[in-house]
Amino acid sequence: MPFIVDLTSGNVEKEYRSSEKGHYGGSLLGLRLMRERTAAGLDPYDPAALLYVAAGMLGGTAAPGLAKAVFLAKSPLTGVAGEAHALGPFAAGMRGAGAKALAVLGRAPRLSYLLVEGGQVSLHDAGDLRGLGTAATTDALRARHGAAASVAAIGPAGENLVRYASVVTDRAFAAGRYGLGAVFGAKNLKAVVCAGDAPAEVADGEAIAALGAYYRESLATNPLAALQAGLPGFAGWADDPIAPGYASVRNFSVPGAPGLRVPSARDYDGRAVSVTGSCPGCPNDCLKVYGDRSGGLGQEAFLSLGWNLGIDDLGTILAANARCNDLGLDVVSLGGTIAFAMECAEHGLLPGGPAFGDAAALPGLIEDVATRSGALGDLLAEGSARAARRIGRDARAYAMTVKGAELPCFDPRPQPGVGLGYALAPGGPRYDALEHDLDFDPVAGLAYCFPEAARAGALPAPAHELDEERGRRSARLLRLWSGLDALNLCVFASTPTRPLTVDHLTALVTAVLGEPFTLDDLLAAGQARLDELRAYAVRETGGPLDEELPARLHDEPITEGPHRGAVLGRAAFGRARAAFYAELGWTPVKGGEIS
Q1: 279: closest CA among 312, 244, 322, 234?
Q2: Three-class secondary structure assignment of 514-546
Q3: For residue range 149-195, what is the model confidence (pLDDT) as tens digits?
Q4: Angle made by CA atoms 92, 154, 408, in degrees to the nearest 5
Q5: How far apart are CA 470 and CA 437, in angstroms?
Q6: What is the CA radius of gyration of the chain?
Q7: SS in 3 state form for 280-291?
Q8: Cα dihedral 403/407/408/411 (nearest 10)
């Protein structure tokens, strides 16, 4: 199934893995290839490191929830497997060009791009694209290979090996986390271009059409789907106040009233570049583009580049998001690293460093990081965990990281399942690794989704409650969404809170592949993906895994509002962690082996 591409020699071969069951051509297959084809302890920038890009057997199909592509490699930020997903048209572009997956090894002798067209893969010079942003790179490559070509590109951040550089697909849709853009850069790979319009084959087109019609009708009845479809959109934080403790403010250092403004929906008026058609085949339009053509707005951008930095000016935040996408920077790690620097400066550990609330300084900081300009830009390009080690003294206390990756800006103190996910997900902290605790609160939650959650073993419980059952429940939800990731199914369309219920998902996979597919199959894929990620992490670290949250989250309770008193007590968190492990069949790691 995957094309095996050696950038050093230019050789391309196809490896047939269709006889293997259960990998669905997605991240599970990529993880197996990483294990089989790379040596333990390899530097992420070594030419022998493997980069995997895949639509898989389902991604890119013209159907709701199937517009996801996966990017996978050993992360330069965490040192374990880094997996990021891009929505938008790129997965359909891969399928249209005749590829389900690419496994890329070696290093091109000069800056190059891969062209996938008509089921063939070739390597081309990209010297004239050096230094260009992702939008200009996309424009130039579409001028060569057709306006409908799909492009996954890096910007200057990837070329300069910023450890959290992103890959950006089709100008606005980022595969943001864990520094996969830097892996592109280390391989001298500027872009992957997919040209062609062959539709992804499905076994039952009528069933796909019926599921699409159902999803379209559900936009009026499912509150989260309606929020995603409407304006300013799912990522357009607007109007409703954000309760103290729900989101990070000034590097998680403000446990009370944030003192920052939430924009109104009208503040977004006139700023949209595109609000429809983001994911081919899906009736919803979750991803809006604001500011300029690079401004695809993910849900984390407002918090990461705004409140986490003490900034609430919407124009500044939208412009920063667009510039990050064009330069190829993950907004979560960039925001977390700048927030770390701001708190270090506040405590006298980084003289001349940036200050919370300084919106005017943000554009320059972003440019300096992407180009590694000056001592500060070069320092922050390493991420906050490495920067803390360089600074020394008490700086480590202000690096809000797990496994070296910056935490998303949803505060886990009121949502301990989120905290368990941040700490224990074997690929590193992600906000979309599992559905959040507040959705299942018996009083404040989304009651319509309780029956669906129960099918995965997650019964309603007060959101703040941290006990062994919280550990088991969170592990079950992690397994469920891991299954979605393994198949390249969109979590923002799927169970338990979105329109595609378990029954719709199993019918969808069956309709595409033509083989029976059940909830047990989905959970088995989720468990297998988690096990592969964890085994790879054990192999690469050679010792105990970093599964510790920053001390602040255990020691500093929320002080105001409906989440007052919420904190991740260490003893309770330890018991929940043990239950989480037991649910997934894991045991603690000692001496590089699973004991």
Answers
A1: 234
A2: CCCCCHHHHHHHHHHHHHHHHHHHHHHHCCCCC
A3: 999 999 999 999 999 999 999 999 999 999 999 999 999 999 999 99
A4: 85
A5: 9
A6: 22
A7: CCCCCCCCCEEC
A8: 130
Close Cβ partners of 412 (under 8 Å, ≥ 6 residues apart): 418, 419, 422, 549, 553, 568
**Structure token pair of residue 543:** 């010792």
> Model confidence over 476-535: pLDDT tens digits?
999 999 999 999 999 999 999 999 999 999 999 999 999 999 999 999 999 999 999 999
Q: Which helix (H) or strand (E) holds 114?
A: strand 112-117
> Phi-psi region for residue 584, left (φ > 0), alpha (ψ -120 to 50) or beta?
alpha
- Cβ distance 339 to 308 under 8 Å? yes
- 425 SS3 class: coil
User: Over 190-237, what HEC string results?
Assistant: EEEEEECCCCCCCCCHHHHHHHHHHHHHHCCCCHHHHHHHCCCCCCCC
Distance in Å from the first CA to the final CA of the chain: 35
Q: SS in 3 state form for 336-358?
A: HHHHHHHHHHHCCCCCCCCCCCC
3-state DSSP of 389-402 = HHHCCCHHHHCCEE
pLDDT of residue 590: 66
Length, in residues, of the chain:
595
Between 241 and 591, residue with greater pLDDT: 241
| Host H or E run for residue 272 | strand 272-274
For residue 484, count other CB atoms closer than 10 A to its CB. 25
Q: Is the pLDDT of residue 594 over 50?
A: no
Task: State how far the Cα of 343 lies from the Cα of 398, in Å rounded to an integer.
Answer: 7
Q: Is the pLDDT of residue 322 over 90?
A: yes
Q: Is 452 helix (H, G, I), strand (E, B) or coil?
A: helix
User: Please, are residues 429 and 408 in contact by the beta-carbon 8 Å criterion?
Assistant: yes
For residues 157 and 167, what is the distance between their CA atoms, to the nearest angstrom?
10
With tokens 């094309």, the residue in question is 3
Q: Encoding tokens for residue 68?
A: 């996801």
> What digits encode the pLDDT tens for the residues 33-48?
999 999 999 999 999 9
Q: CA-CA distance, 288 to 126, in Å (whole number)?
A: 30
- For residue 5, the number of C-alpha atoms closer than 13 Å in the C-beta half-sphere is 26
Tokens representing 435?
């559905």
Angle (nearest 5°) at CA 551 between 550 and 556: 120
pTM for this predicted structure: 0.97
Question: CA 182, 187, 191 angle in degrees (round to 5)?
Answer: 75
The answer to whether 77 touches 36, Cβ cutoff 8 Å, is no
Judged against a pLDDT cut of 80, whether residue 591 lies above it is answered with no
What CA–CA distance (Å, rounded) separates 88 from 105? 26
Beta-carbon neighbour count of residue 240 at 10 Å? 7
SS3 320: helix
